[in-house]
């Protein structure tokens, strides 16, 4: 018996027609045109429920609502890193200083204004004041630590006597004597002395670093030692409060 009789018969593959021979879909399904409803709902955001009043909202409406909600959000509070930057003494700037005023008159006016303010440190209210910059007409002032928040010094106004800033005592006597000879000024009359109203603004961040660079080294060391003492005092108060509020341990309960 020959081997050809035992071979399996070959299967013929079905013939697949070409694209030209395939049947075409019906005309109504060939190019389905969008219905009027699809055109009307383009760019519309639907609500959560059919009965909701916000069932159909345009994209512009959604954007406006998000913007309004963002505007109603409260502003961020002050960063925690700025809370204790003035522990050793508040550093402020005094801007828009007239040419008739110098740093000595500013220091004197601030010492008189803040002399009665409670403070854990003895001495004058102003620890150091820089000279007035002739270009920016501003100066930096370092206060000693007080028992008030640094917000107290934000836009704090004070009056400066310009006459004491621009004239030395000898010049003042000469000008007074000349005025008395002319009959335009009487002794003890300060009505002609001009006063200027200035304000202080606390510094933070880069502005504070730039101001500290202009302070002498011994003033910076004094400020750092005061800040360290205030931190230690604050930590002691925190430890006392934590001991009072903490629950007693088992060993304490047994005793």
What is the strand and helix layout of this fold?
Elements: H1 27-30, H2 36-40, E1 44-46, E2 56-58, H3 59-72, E3 91-94, H4 103-113, E4 126-129, E5 139-143, E6 156-161, H5 162-166, H6 169-182, E7 195-202, H7 205-213, H8 217-245, H9 250-254
Antiparallel strand pairs: 1-2, 3-5, 3-7, 4-5, 6-7
Q: Any descriptors?
A:
elongated; Alpha-Beta Plaits; 255 residues
Describe the structure.
It is a single chain. By secondary structure, the protein is of the alpha+beta class. It has a domain at 83-166 and 194-234: Alpha-Beta Plaits (2-Layer Sandwich), CATH 3.30.70. 38% of the residues lie in helices and 13% in strands. It contains nine helices and seven strands, in the order H-H-E-E-H-E-H-E-E-E-H-H-E-H-H-H. It has a five-stranded antiparallel β-sheet with strand order 4-5-3-7-6. A two-stranded antiparallel ribbon has the order 1-2. The radius of gyration is 41 Å and the shape is elongated. The termini are far apart.
């Amino acid at each position: 018996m020959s081997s050809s009789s035992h071979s399996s018969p070959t299967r013929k593959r079905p013939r697949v027609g070409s694209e030209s021979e395939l049947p075409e879909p019906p005309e109504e399904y060939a190019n389905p045109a969008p219905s009027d409803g699809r055109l009307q709902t383009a760019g519309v955001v639907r609500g959560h429920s059919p009965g909701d009043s916000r069932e159909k909202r345009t994209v512009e409406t959604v954007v406006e609502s998000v913007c309004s909600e963002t505007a109603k959000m409260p502003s961020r509070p002050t960063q925690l890193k700025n809370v204790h930057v003035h522990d050793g003494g508040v550093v402020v700037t005094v801007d828009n200083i007239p040419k008739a005023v110098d740093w000595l008159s500013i220091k004197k006016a601030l010492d008189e204004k803040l002399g009665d303010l409670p403070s854990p440190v003895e001495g004058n209210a102003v620890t150091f004041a820089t000279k007035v910059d002739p270009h920016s007409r501003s100066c930096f002032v370092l206060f000693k630590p007080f028992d008030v928040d640094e917000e107290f010094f934000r836009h704090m106004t004070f009056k400066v006597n310009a006459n004491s800033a621009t004239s030395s005592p000898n010049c003042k006597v000469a000008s007074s004597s000349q005025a008395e000879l002319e009959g335009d000024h009487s002794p003890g009359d300060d009505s002609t002395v001009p006063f200027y109203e200035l304000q202080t603004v606390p510094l933070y961040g880069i502005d504070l670093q730039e101001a500290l660079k202009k302070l002498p080294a011994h003033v910076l060391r004094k400020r750092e030692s005061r800040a360290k003492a205030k931190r230690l005092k604050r930590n002691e108060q925190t430890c006392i409060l934590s001991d009072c509020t903490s629950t007693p341990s088992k060993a304490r309960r047994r005793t």
